[in-house]
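**Protein fold record**
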Amino acid sequence: MADIGPPPEIRTITEIDAATGFTRVRCCGRLVASHRDEFYEDVRKLIPGSKRIVLDFSDVTHMDSSGLGAVIRLYASAKSAGCDVQLMNLSKGISRILSVTNVLSFFTIVGENDIRTL
């Protein structure tokens, strides 16, 4: 059996609108245990300068329970700092994980047309 190596890391690509305090974070890869802290820290450092952070999961291929925990930690950190975390482009699998764990109700789910106006 061929060794395929560790799963691809989670990457984040950030777009910030300083005038409105809006931050969009496009997440790419696998949000799993081996990369959860990196993901959390990449996004957490944006909270103090943002009123609203939208996590765009369009390029997230998998999320495990540790990835879910990182998303919940971000929600809690942002809420305590007066920042709103919203989600967009959830795959069926990620939507199911968030729904089954009753976490989906914590978040506003936004579409592409909504992200600049909410």
